[in-house]
Amino acid sequence: MVVVLDINVLLVTIARKSTYRPIFDALLGGKFQLIISNEILSEYVEVIE
Q1: Percent of the chain at pLDDT above 70?
Q2: Using CA atoms, how far apart are residues 7 and 5, in angstroms rounded to an integer?
Q3: Number of structural domains, the chain?
């Protein structure tokens, strides 16, 4: 499966106690492929910095 995750979705999935953590775990486990455009990558960098 191929998915695009907005930075807001990605951020809420990272916390270990998050209801949405299974999304992050599935990403780490290779259950789907994350697709990132240049615009989304720029948004990731802007928010993380």
Answers
A1: 100
A2: 6
A3: 1
